[in-house]
Specification:
This protein has 374 residues and is α/β, with parallel strands linked by helices. The protein is built from 13 helices and 11 strands. The chain is globular, with a radius of gyration of 21 Å. The site of pyridoxal-5'-phosphate has 14 residues, from helix 3 and helix 4.
Length: 374
């Protein structure tokens, strides 16, 4: 069976974990945590970042930092992972779901205006498949209405919008290093603080509501409970694993892009014959090869394709039951109609894409997809 995903060990993960263990300090915010943070600050010129236990946690920190209160409204796309919404629901926000754009699953920036009310506090965008949302439009709407913009950049490591790294555009942003992403640490994430106002408080929330970071730097003479917070920082063991991955980022990215391109070129003929739709990358965006998906014509065809691939030992998946259709949301908010989001839920199929996917395996997948659509 060709799996859908396979975590890739670059080689130095266990060595670095060994070093972390031997150093005698394996709790958070140590040597490897700082190395991971510096990596992003140096390579992409992020203002400030904090390593977290997950992207979910980074989003929860963002919700606290924006001071989301009970009854505040937060606009998010319905076609996304549950954490995008949950982080804000935990603070008592009312989620207002936006539809996706027709050209790709990203939030439709042209429909945002109608969703804003006096209670709206933030817009959360998701760069689906690592392909940028239309950020100029979104930032303009946010500025006109004094809203925070948070980027759920879980899938968007090493991807750009008009030359700017994704994760650096909103007030706050979050990456994921879950084992299904391009760069991994099992579970793991990162919060990016692009707005200076949040910098001090972010560190405090990260460290369980204490000023321990300032204490370590010698800025205060004892550390105290000064705010709300939680245990959002991962252990050095996780950071050590992640650093080994980061050292290989360029190599991982170029291999994934190669696989992505091979899929795209092989299926272009099917798109020309109008048998399926391929991912659309706008001119303002780059592709970081986080995922390769195709769009079938119907939910029935999607199920048939996945079943056909399965009997041919290929594991393909669909995902994201639109959150507005989830039992949890429907019970609270009733039925709303977001047809484009629903269409992605019905028709999107993700094909295997991972570093160690062999060329002969990929050809097998390509042949079977071509055979299916014949
Ligand atoms: C993977 C993912 C998350 C969650 O990331 P974790 O690190 O597992 O918490 C959130 N949002 C999106 C869009 C994702 O793809």
């Amino acid at each position: 069976m060709i799996p859908f995903n396979k975590p890739y060990l670059t080689g130095k993960e266990l060595q670095y974990i060994g070093e972390a263990v031997q150093s005698g300090k394996i709790s958070g915010n140590g040597h490897f945590t700082k190395k991971c943070q510096h990596f992003f600050e140096e390579k992409y010129h992020f203002r400030r970042c904090l390593l977290t236990t997950s992207c979910t946690d980074a989003l929860e920190m963002a919700a606290i930092l924006c001071d989301i209160q009970v009854g505040d409204e937060v606009i998010i796309p319905s076609y996304t992972f549950v954490s995008t919404a949950n982080a804000f629901v935990l603070r008592g926000a009312k989620i207002v779901f936006a539809d996706s754009s027709v050209e790709n699953p990203n939030i439709d920036a042209d429909k945002l205006k109608d969703l804003i009310t006096p209670k709206t506090k933030a817009i959360v965008v998701v760069h689906y498949a690592g392909i940028a949302c239309d950020m100029d439009k979104i930032i303009a709407i946010a500025e006109a209405n004094k809203l925070f913009v948070i980027e759920d950049a879980a899938q968007a490591v090493d991807s750009f919008y008009k030359g700017r790294p994704l994760g650096s555009i909103g007030h706050l942003s979050a990456f994921s290093f879950h084992e299904t992403k391009n760069i991994i640490s099992g579970e793991g994430g990162m919060l990016f603080i692009n707005d200076e106002r949040f910098e001090k408080r972010a560190e405090i929330i990260w460290e369980k509501g204490t000023n321990r970071s300032a204490f370590w730097r010698g800025e205060v003479d004892k550390y105290n409970w000064v705010d709300i917070g939680s245990s959002f920082l991962p252990s050095e063991i996780v950071a050590a694993y992640l650093y080994a991955q980061l050292e290989n980022l360029d190599k991982i990215q170029s291999k994934r892009k190669q696989i992505w391109e091979r899929y795209y070129q092989s299926f272009e003929v099917l798109e020309q014959e109008n048998k399926l739709k391929l991912p659309f990358v706008p001119t303002y965006a780059t592709n970081n090869a986080h995922m390769f998906y195709i769009l079938t014509k119907s939910v029935e065809q999607r199920d048939k394709l996945i079943a056909f691939l399965k009997v041919n030992n290929i594991y393909a998946v669909f995902h994201y039951i639109s959150l507005h259709s989830s039992p949890f949301y429907k019970e609270k908010a009733g039925d709303i109609s977001l047809p484009i989001s629903d269409n992605y839920s019905d028709c999107l199929v993700r094909l295997p894409l991972f570093y160690e996917l062999q060329e002969n395996e990929q050809h097998q997948i390509i042949d079977k997809v071509l055979e299916f659509f014949k």
